[in-house]
Amino acid sequence: MGATENNGPHDINGFSILALGFNICNSWIGMASSLAIGITLGGTVTVLYGALVTTVIYLATAATLAELSSIYPTAGGQYHFTSLLAPKRYSRSLSYACGIVSAFSWISLSAAVAILNAQLLIAIAVIWNPDYAPQAWHYFLIYQTLAFLLLLSNLFVIKRAPWLHDIGFILTLTSFIVILITCISCSNHKQPSDFVWKTWINETGWPDGICFLTGLVTPAFMYAGLDAALHLAEECTHPEKTVPKAVMSSVVIGFVTAFSFAIAMLYALGDFEAVLATATRMPIIEIYLQATGSRVATTVFAVMSLSIGCFSLNAIQQTSSRLTWALARDNAFVFSTVVSRIQPTLQVPVWALLGNFGVIFCCGCLYLASTTAFNALVGIGIVLQQLSFAFPAALLLYRKRSTRFLLSTAPFRLNSALGWAANALVVVSALIWFVFFQFPVTLPVTSSNMNYACVVTGCMCLLGGVNWIIHGKAHYRGPRIEYGLGTQL
């Protein structure tokens, strides 16, 4: 398979691939949805300084992915990189493991954004009817309805209108500016700078160091879906140049918007206890209400956020289906021959889209059974995402960043010192994420506050292992990509 092989037209331009990547990360919305939680896990110190720490880590991650995607621009992304970099003896098994981990991370991200959209819509209802007590099945129905509508968009619209991602990108930046300026100018409860920059809160029972590390999950969520552009590489123009730019730009724009948003909201924050007590609507809605003093303005901001969330979920469905399709193309799981088909009229992987939707539908059913289990499912996505990035990063270190794999003529190339540092930081951060993001949030541990992410991880490992035994070991061939002057690995 050639590095730029494509089963459809290259219809996504450079701006659209950047827009799609940022629509998924939507860093300031990610910060908004978890700001109050972050403050409880280390205070404003974790939120702001943690954002600086995670941005350095994700810049290193983006640089690692950009370097590889400038040479191997394919829909498989990191699992393709892993196949090419691994020793021949372990190539199939390692790339399979990386691909399954990546696929599970996108399932988690899809479920997380879908439930956030449902929570936003419920929050709008609560603004105007404070006595309304939403039930789990209310969230379930909205979750499934939005997921289905955006499935239809992916099947029949998005391939013919890739500019929808451009609209989403413009909307999110416009909304960011409007909300930021309004909340700052209207707030009558300006917090002092000492509160914003120096507040440390640790009521978790963990030592301060562990509290800070577990609290990094909030700023890390700003970069969920960072690999989006990689999986659309075979549908965009000049992917060897546009994909690296999109990945790097997502981090830069994400940091600028999320960091400034967090600072603004912390200054505008009035009654923090009231924010934490807002059990029936998203805490950020209470912050908007305190800052503006207007239900109308708060509703407008919530509708803006919901619209952005729909653009994000639309892009997530598109991207995750391409990863599923790439795995099926390499015969990674049962029914691969069906899932790998591109519908000739629609020019989209219909069965990959339907398969992903089926999994997300089942995740929604889990929400009805146990919100604790569902929260563990959506919380594990960041861990799995960074773990999937660590596979090729570790193998680059193993290969001593040889020019056999990192061509000196590649459009995006790090110098030796930066390359070694970036790859090492990706691996170290993945290990930290894997350990500390699965810690219980508070001590002592009970059944109600236990972090069941480790259980979800175990179940995913079990499913991936069973599939390998009954199908993958015999049939998964791993990708083979021609690069350079026809050399093939």
Structure description:
The protein has 489 residues and is mainly alpha-helical. The protein has a single domain, classed as Amino acid/polyamine transporter I. Helix content is 70%, strand content 1%. It has helices spanning 14-25, 27-40, 43-69, 78-85, 91-128, 136-156, 164-186, 193-198, 208-215, 217-220, 228-231, 239-268, 272-276, 283-292, 295-329, 336-339, 350-369, 371-379, 381-398, 416-436, 453-475; strands at residues 482-483, 487-488. It has a two-stranded antiparallel sheet with strand order 1-2.
How would you summarize what this structure contains?
The chain is built from 21 helices and 2 strands. It is an all-alpha fold and 489 residues long.
The helix/strand series, from N terminus to C terminus, equals HHHHHHHHHHHHHHHHHHHHHEE
In the CATH scheme, the class would be Mainly Alpha
Strand content: under 5%
Low-confidence stretches: 1-8, 482-489
Spatial order of strands in the largest sheet: 1-2
Q: Tally the helices: what do you get?
A: 21
The CATH superfamily is identified as: Amino acid/polyamine transporter I
N-to-C CA distance: 11 Å
Mean pLDDT across all residues, rounded? 90
The name CATH uses for the topology is Amino acid/polyamine transporter I
State the secondary-structure class: mainly alpha
Number of strands: 2
| Helical amount | 55-70%
- CATH architecture tag: Up-down Bundle
If you compute it from the alpha carbons, what radius of gyration comes out, rounded to the nearest whole angstrom?
Answer: 22 Å
The main sheet comes to:
2 strands, antiparallel
Q: Write down the overall geometry.
A: globular
In the residues, how many domains can be counted? Answer: 1
